[in-house]
Structure of GNAT family N-acetyltransferase:
Amino acid sequence: MEIITERLTLRPIKYKDVANLHKILSQQSTRRFNDYEQGITNTELRAWIQWDIEQYIQQKGIRLAIINDDKQFIGTIGIQFTSRFDAFMVSFELDENYRGYRYMQEALSALQIYSKEIEWLRCKNWKAKIHIENIAAINTVIKCGFRTYFHRSNKCYLVYKF
């Protein structure tokens, strides 16, 4: 399964992506806005990818590698069901060298369109938990039709609903 856009190919994450994904997740600008500020090991990352694969098999989510038109791994985007929010939560990370070019907006829009073709993803309850200072991510989800749903100031997160 692949989703192809004008500039990107989105494909399921694989174990071979560990090194490239680790590089992105180790970037200070990525760690600052994610749940793993202290970093993540390759072993933890392999377990995370295994979990993503299992979620896809169980029809509870999907994580896709984002490959640009130069065949470079530049990030991931995923959607996973979370019972805590009773919703599918969107998450993404993009290599800092590729930010500002609307790649993530293109990837999220493509995932939204693709989800209409998959019954278990075809839902109206998508959310994205975003750090309040991550203006680029906030702008990305707003441009893709999300709106502010919940603000939790003590954790500095906004939740957007599509």
